[in-house]
Design brief:
By secondary structure, the chain is of the alpha/beta class. The protein has 2 domains: 17-129, Response regulator (Rossmann fold, 3-Layer(aba) Sandwich), CATH 3.40.50.2300; 147-385, Rossmann fold, CATH 3.40.50.300. It is built from 16 helices and 13 strands. The protein has helices at 24-37, 49-58, 76-86, 102-110, 123-129, 160-174, 191-195, 202-207, 214-220, 245-258, 272-280, 292-306, 329-336, 350-356, 367-380, 390-393, and strands spanning 17-21, 42-46, 65-69, 92-97, 115-118, 147-153, 179-183, 222-224, 228-231, 261-265, 283-288, 311-317, 342-344. The strands form 2 sheets. Strands 8-9-7-10-6-11-12-13 form an 8-stranded mixed sheet, with helices on both faces. Bound molecules: adenosine-5'-triphosphate and magnesium ion (MG). Adenosine-5'-triphosphate is lined by residues 153, 156-162, 189-190, 268, 317-319, 344, 346-347, 350-351, 354-355, 368.
Length: 397
């Protein structure tokens, strides 16, 4: 499948390597190791996890490989967890310490740490464990992987693309996380238009699914600012296009290594790609409204999702003014056998601002924006940065 080329924009290059070591001798051993072995930008300083976190937070992209010293730390595990929160998924972390402790070693590996090196660190030890190619023996990806969040509507026009793009925008621009937005409709689901970016990238990514490294994705994805990168396509409307499940698996796996969130807008078309994506997602967001067709499809869809054992977030989107014929909320909830997790209020400015002006609906004071913030906070367990007005400062907001 082909798609228009993505504009060739690149983000700031990441440090290849950064190390934070607690004493001068270890710093020196690492400086020499880095000088001998590495190509690419490297940073070695004295410090520990706190310095590592503050360094990572100042970079556009996380270093690809981090060494951090936990010598003397009372609670190394929560500290490494905090580093994982600050880093992009997929970052390789090696921990240095002064405890010969198998229990700690196992627990660190359980957190996704690639190796644990006990001091004193020598040039020989580094050559043996990290080698010239920075591939520690235990490496299995990074500390974390990104979260795949799949949005599915229970009828056309229920607001799936609007909510998915708004969530992606908010998480990237207000929570400073890297987000991949994937419009999975090969014929074009309209997400890029709402985000005001060019269509493209999905065709190339699927065609090269076997070789999706960070560089390829960076060149192929269409950028909406620094942190939100998109994949979409607009195939010939008269052509049947099927997305292969194997290619999707490779694509999602690669995106989860590079992005904190992978937000997928699913087309309203049943089939293997839909089933696979819902199965693969960490969170499925299902949008419904107060119409009979939506209720009917919700009743058909929910039992399939419940069987998958993932988290399903059921959203009532009031995308139109309340009509006398609308089903009441209690009726809908008792028919589907569960209550809504979130109600997105009607926002009469949404079609004009979102569809025609391309404004981010998640920004500002409208109730729609508040609902998107609630959804994002729920997914991340993190508070969204808001500009603090005088009411908030006085503890009233
Ligand atoms: N809470 C809301 N209040 C007011 N309007 C809304 C709300 N949510 C969505 N809309 C509007 O509803 C319309 C349809 O939204 P959208 O295109 O996101 O739906 P969709 O489910 O993705 O549709 P499709 O089935 O075509 O993919 C848009 O004009 C959008 O601005
Ligand atoms: Mg849509």
């Amino acid at each position: 499948m082909s798609a228009p080329a993505a504009p060739a924009a690149t983000t700031a290059a990441a440090y290849e390597f950064a190390a934070f070591l607690g004493d001068r001798d270890t710093v020196e051993v690492f400086r020499q190791f880095v000088g001998r072995q590495l190509v690419g930008a490297a940073h070695v300083q004295r410090g520990g996890v706190r310095q590592a976190v503050s360094f990572v937070e100042k970079q556009d992209r996380s270093p690809k490989f981090i060494v951090v010293d936990v010598s003397g730390a009372d609670m190394p595990l929560p500290e490494i967890d905090a580093l994982a929160d600050a880093c992009e998924p997929g970052v390789t972390v090696v921990v240095v310490g002064d405890q010969q402790d198998v229990g700690l070693f196992r627990q660190l590996l359980g957190l996704g740490v690639a190796d644990y090196l006990v001091k004193p660190i020598t040039a020989e030890l580094l050559a043996q464990t990290l080698g010239g190619d920075l591939k520690p023996a235990g490496v299995r990806g990074g500390l974390r992987t990104g979260k795949l969040v799949a949005f599915a509507g229970t009828r056309g026009g229920v607001g799936t693309t609007t909510l998915a793009t708004s969530l992606a925008w908010l998480v990237a621009n207000r929570m400073n996380r890297r987000v991949a937005f994937v419009d999975l409709d090969p014929h074009g689901g309209g997400g890029p238009m709402l985000l005001d970016v060019e269509v493209g990238g999905l065709g190339e990514a699927v065609a090269h699914a076997e070789n999706l490294d960070a560089l390829f994705l960076d060149r192929t994805m269409v950028k909406h600012g620094q942190r939100l990168h998109c994949l979409s396509a607009e195939e010939d409307l008269t052509k049947e296009v099927a997305l292969e499940v194997e290619a999707l698996e490779r694509l999602f796996t690669a995106l989860e290594q590079q992005f904190h969130y992978v937000v997928v807008d699913l087309p309203r078309r049943a089939g293997p790609a839909l089933r696979f994506t819902l199965q693969r997602a960490a969170i499925q967001v299902v949008l419904a409204d107060r119409t009979l067709p939506s209720l009917h499809n919700t009743v058909r869809l929910l039992p399939l999702l419940e069987g998958l054992g993932r988290r399903t977030v059921l959203v009532l989107n009031e995308h139109q003014p309340l009509k006398a014929s609308a089903l009441d909320r209690e009726t809908v909830e008792s028919s589907i056998g569960r209550s809504f997790d979130l109600v997105v209020p009607f926002d009469k400015s949404a079609p004009e601002r979102g569809d025609n002006l391309g404004e981010p609906l998640a920004d500002g004071r409208q109730p729609f924006a508040a609902a998107v913030r609630e959804l994002a906070a729920d997914f991340s367990g993190q508070r969204v940065n808001r500009k603090r007005g005088w009411r908030a400062k006085l503890g009233l907001g």
